[in-house]
Amino acid sequence: MRCVTVLGPSQTGKTTLVAKLASLEGTPRKSASPYGSSLTEFDFKDEAWCAIDTPGANEALALAQDALLVSDACILCISPTPDEAVLAAPYLRAIEASGTPCLIFINRMDEPRGRLRDVIAALQTYSNHPLVLRQVPIREGDRIVGSCDLISERAWRYREGQPSALIELPQDAVEREHEARAEMLEQLSEFDDWLLEELIEDREPASDTLFTISSRILKENRVIPVLFGSASHSNGIMRLMKALRHEAPPATALRSRLAGSVEEAALSAVSFHAYHKANVGKTVLVRALADGLKQGAPLGGATLGPLQEAGNGKPISGSVEAGSVFAALKSDHLPATALLTQTASVEPPDWTTPPTPMLERILVPGSERDETKLSATLAKLAETDRGLKVMQEEGTGAALICAQGPVHLRDLRKTLSEVFRVEVSERAPNPVYRETISKPSDVRYRHRKQTGGAGQFADVQLSVRPNERGQGFTFGESVKGGTVPRNYIPAVEAGAREAMEKGPLGFQVVDVDVVLTDGQYHSVDSSDFAFRTAGKMGVKQALSQASAVLMQPVVRVEIHIPSVYSGGMVTLVSSLKGQVLGFDRDENAKGWDIFRALVPGGVLDELARSLRSATQGIGHFSKTFDHFEELYGKEADTIINAHGAGAHAH
Ligand SMILES: Nc1nc2c(ncn2[C@@H]2O[C@H](COP(=O)(O)OP(=O)(O)OP(=O)(O)O)[C@@H](O)[C@H]2O)c(=O)[nH]1
Ligand SMILES: [Mg+2]
After folding, report:
1. Most exposed among 211, 332, 339, 601, judged by the fewest C-beta atoms under 10 Å?
2. Which residues contact 202 (CB under 8 A, 6 or more apart)?
3. What is the pTM of this model?
4. 3-class DSSP state of 382
5. What does CATH list as the number for 2-249?
6. Residue 310 in 3-state DSSP?
7. Residue 649 — pLDDT band, cuts 50, 70, 90?
């Protein structure tokens, strides 16, 4: 079986294309698994195929990456509009990183829009691989009525719902065809010395030889051939399928491509998705890379449970061949995405890592029962969804999730509710604020209590001073003459530390130095407890007299965007009170820039939203905490009222 992923921007016709490819001969067998992508098995010229149709949403890029992990080749399906080429950028980036041989199919050619040449030029911005146009359109007025293959030089006229008819190339298309063919040959000759020689000698190579050459060049992943047509009108579909049949590499090539951290000979299979179904447990989708996998056979360190055909869910009784895609049931031991040997599962290559999730939300359970279930369920979901990160909110310990975007979040809540019966509501996480003091303060504090017999007594004199930024809390003592006995000093320090947990503004206090300078004790009534209390209360009092100031987190962000969007980034970052640090070309992705900036922690949600709308959902950022920065005035008051002492007072 050979496996091809169909990916590309939203609504470009991927699902229609897969349906058409799969029904060229016979009836497709389509999956109904609860999986964001869908698997279709079909036969073409006595060979079994599996097509993975991935959703065209930036938030679902991880699904496309997982599909590439098991694919011999992929089809990037795009619209024929030059202005929309940028939408393909994330996919081209993922395809190049994965090393998967790719064909581009420009769909919807029945709706005449920009020039084909402009579409290809715009796409080339995002690809290191030369894009090689393999067909030219035959036009009648505005409409495209057929195509001419540049290798065979055969011309075809489209017929609605029927195979295209072979025709004579119309006179007015001949010149254009010759030009395009010469360009194609020149591109191919860069990867074939024999062809280069032929061209220099001005000889016309035979089309059989050219097919062999172009097929080798695609197997070696040197170029991206470009074909076109219209899926909904069945135009260009047979040509595309034949290109796949002749030019897509066999499954053995995938095995060599994935070998690296695992020796090729030991690589038995690769898993690429998993899902939980109520009462059935974990199902893992797997592609076999070696013969002989079956129920009871060892894989990934345990034995395989029952197997099902990935296409129509029929039980598989015997063993499967290398190249087959199947569903492994009751497979809790298999990771969702991994390279599998008989005895172990190994992390998949780095390029499969999904983009850093940008949308952070706190999930609030609806009931006590949901509360206990929520964290276990989220942990389980994160195991099968690498686009999802699950953490805990600082301070509250509430479940903090990072999702790829609003659609991903909605799907997640749907799974929680429908599969796991956990109901949640959501809120934005509270940014982590801190406070410090801006002037020194000395206090004397006496803790004294007389309750019945034993009393409590401790007296401390404390000098509290601002520390330098980032120094945190420090404690010292300069007690002379044993006014506070040595053994009580650690208790004073512990009390001072406790006072740092929440300062007068309602936030954790940082960058403060406390020195115990003097005090008094009582031989009977003093205790660790009494000195700890005195330390805590004394420092609290000192802090309240030391002009507390709010500190907001400042976060360093790395924004990844196609270069066409770079122009707008300075305004976007400045409008969020961020500070631009600079930008560079992204060495790992052609046509992309990396923009570095410092932004206040409180605007991250807004940054994610603005970036989504400024870049049609393509841009994303990663973040790391940088430092805390003092914040004054109205802005600080608003925050204190919303999250700090002001809020707690209400
Ligand atoms: N005019 C025209 N419409 C097409 C063509 N191919 C698909 N469509 C239509 O475009 C719409 C989207 O098609 P789909 O196949 O669902 O597109 P998709 O890429 O799978 O969309 P997502 O999965 O949502 O990203 C449907 O209404 C199709 O009928 C085509 O070649 N020409
Ligand atoms: Mg679709």
Report:
1. 332
2. none
3. 0.90
4. helix
5. 3.40.50.300
6. coil
7. low
533 lines ligand 1 (CB under 6 A): no
User: What does the pLDDT look like over 136-179, one tens digit per residue?
Assistant: 999 998 889 999 999 999 999 999 878 899 999 999 999 999 99
- C-alpha closest to that of 253 among 580, 424, 4, 538: 4
Phi and psi, residue 641, nearest 5°: -70, -35
The pLDDT score that the predictor gives to residue 430 is: 81
Separation between Cα atoms, residue 648 and residue 567, nearest integer Å? 43
Average pLDDT taken over every residue of the chain: 92
Domains 266-352 and 362-427 belong to one CATH topology? no
Give 420 Cα–ligand 2 centroid separation in angstroms: 26
| 3-state percent helix, strand, coil for the chain, nearest multiple of 5 | 35, 30, 35
Tens of pLDDT, residue by residue over 49-93, are 999 999 998 888 999 999 999 999 999 999 999 999 999 999 999
Q: Rounded to an integer, what distance in angstroms lies between the CA atom of residue 438 and that of residue 429?
A: 28
CA of 56 to the centre of ligand 1 (A): 11
Taking only Cα atoms into account, the Rg of the chain, rounded to an integer number of angstroms, comes to 33
- The reply to whether ligand 1 has any atom less than 6 angstroms from the CB of 55 is yes
Question: Three-state SS for 84?
Answer: helix
Model confidence pLDDT, tens digit, residues 355-368: 888 899 999 998 88
Phi and psi dihedrals of 48, rounded to 5?
A: -90, 140
pLDDT band at 254 (very low <50, low <70, confident <90, very high): very high
Calpha distance 189→553 (Å, rounded): 56
Q: What is the pairing mode between strands 325-328 and 281-288?
A: antiparallel
pLDDT at residue 650 tops 60: no
**Topology (CATH) of 266-352:** Elongation Factor Tu (Ef-tu); domain 3 (2.40.30)
The CATH number of the structural domain formed by 362-427 is 3.30.70.870
Q: Is the CB of 551 under 6 A from ligand 1?
A: no
Lowest-pLDDT choice from 69-83, 273-287, 395-409 = 273-287
What is the tens place of the pLDDT at every residue in 408-449?
999 899 989 988 899 999 998 888 899 999 999 999 999 998
| 152 alpha carbon – ligand 1 mean position (Å) | 29
- Which ligand has the nearest atom to the CA of 231? 1
Are the CB atoms for 89 and 591 separated by under 8 Å? yes
CA end-to-end distance (rounded Å), the chain: 66
Tokens 């809790």 belong to 332
d(CA 252, CA 289) in angstroms, rounded, equals 7
- Cβ of 230 less than 6 Å from ligand 1: yes
Helix (H, G, I), strand (E, B) or coil at 556: strand
Contact at 8 Å (CB) between 100 and 74? yes
Report every protein residue that has its C-beta within 5 angstroms of ion ligand 2.
14-15
Please give the number of the atom of ligand 1 that sits closest to the Cα of 233. 31
Which range has the worst mean pLDDT, 69-78, 370-379, 549-558? 370-379
C-alpha 38/C-alpha 218 separation (Å) is: 25
Q: Where are the domains of the chain?
A: 2-249, 266-352, 362-427, 435-546, 550-646
State the fold for domain 435-546. Ribosomal Protein S5; domain 2 (3.30.230)
Architecture of domain 550-646: 2-Layer Sandwich (3.30)
